[in-house]
Amino acid sequence: MKVYFEDLELGSADFSSDVQAVVDGYGPTDFLQMDAYNNKEIAVSIDPESDLVQPPHRHEAMDSPESQLLGGPIRSVPHLVRNANPITYVKTGLPPFLLMHGLSDTAVAAHQSELLYEVLLAKGNEATLCLIEGLGHAFFNKNDLDDNEPYSASIRRAGDGETEYIRNREIRIFEMVEEFFQKHLLGS
After folding, report:
1. d(CA 147, CA 143)
2. Is 119 helix (H, G, I), strand (E, B) or coil?
3. What is the tens place of the pLDDT at every residue in 124-149?
């Protein structure tokens, strides 16, 4: 067995270490806008046999994952919120993005992916936003996701000097991700 070591400062001489394509699933973007666009009308059942429901997350709460990450309530550390916001780092010349978000997500509202999509386009980058009916948070964790019927999705795409197009179609999640990587990593 041959083992290759890479100098972490120099990278590998055989391969580019530049990111070639990005798939983002239901990622938070701006912590300070999360509660304003929370899916308050969606309640996720904790147990299908009971009437108990899980309310949407309160992101500004002291014990929220966002506040815990930043070491204090998010309203009290706006400079850290800015540093955690991926939009802060969007510039021209980024690789293509595929943003996927379930419209039934009560943990991170789809508005978060819409924010990132809009800024990517405004800076001249290629981006695709796929909003999927009936899916909540963490759907990428389901190995059997594409075993069911295709999902209904609204897809917005622009970049490479193209005009944005919007279309609705049926998709299979992992199939769409694979096609995206095939196109942008292998050129096929």
Report:
1. 9
2. helix
3. 999 999 999 999 999 999 989 899 89
